[in-house]
Amino acid sequence: MSKKTWEELESKAKELNYSAEDVAKLYLEYARLSKRYGAAIREVQTKLQILDEDFEMRHDHDPIHHMESRVKSMESILGKMDRKGFELSLESIIENLTDIAGVRVICHYVDDIYEVANLLKSHADVEVIKETDYIKNPKPNGYRSLHLVVKIPVYFAEGMVKMPVEIQIRTMAMNFWASLEHKLRYKSDGEIPKFIADELKECSETIAETDLKMQRIHSFLQDIDQNVTLK
Predict the structure, then answer these.
(1) What's residue 23's pLDDT?
(2) Are 115 and 48 in contact (CB under 8 A)?
(3) Of residues 29, 68, 95, 166, which has the active-site annotation?
(4) Cα(63)–Cα(168) distance, rounded to whole angstroms?
(5) Which residues, at least 6 apart from 167, have a Cβ–Cβ distance to it below 8 Å?
(6) Residue 92 forms part of a structural domain
(7) What is the CATH number of the domain that holds 100?
(8) Which residues in the chain land under pLDDT 70?
(9) Catalytic: 131?
(10) Domain that holds residue 136
(11) What is the per-residue pLDDT across 89-130, written as a single tens digit (0 to 9) for each?
């Protein structure tokens, strides 16, 4: 553990009234566990990459623009466990948090989001734990994305373990909005000024309209290509 990491964890432990010793022990245990979550991320990304390549071969269009991933940091886990009122232990973390491993899938168009989600859910070894559609039902602040929590089999030396992974699927425009909102929330300690929040909400609605227009244009071009092919 680097000096900077220890200082950050020690500061977070004091803020949440945890002992530094307990947090240090948990950090070492979690460091080993996080590698398993990293393996689960790679499994999901491999599945998605294969689906994307196969879809492109069949339909001359790749739905996935790019993917991002992360394993939740110990500091972030401490904060979430405290907010949720969960016991601070490795067992409690495993039992209560399903978003430790996260994959973000950035698609070209809105229809691509549902195409990718449906293809992934059709896999027999993918168990869907939870699905939340923030595109059809945006959050009050304007956030839009499709969230899936799945369990996926990962094979280790001692055998197979089903690992949870949270998958967020959104368009490039949705991702741009979410990134900006996240930065603003971080810089304002979680409380974005109302006039900025109102501007963000308006931007979200504009982006949603633009996404739909882009989808219609893309569908029109696909129809043209199909007609040309048929002729």
Answers:
(1) 79
(2) no
(3) 166
(4) 14
(5) 44, 102, 103, 104, 105, 120, 147, 148, 149, 150
(6) yes
(7) 3.30.460.10
(8) 1-10, 12-13, 16, 228-231
(9) no
(10) 3-172
(11) 899 999 999 999 999 999 999 999 999 999 999 999 999 999
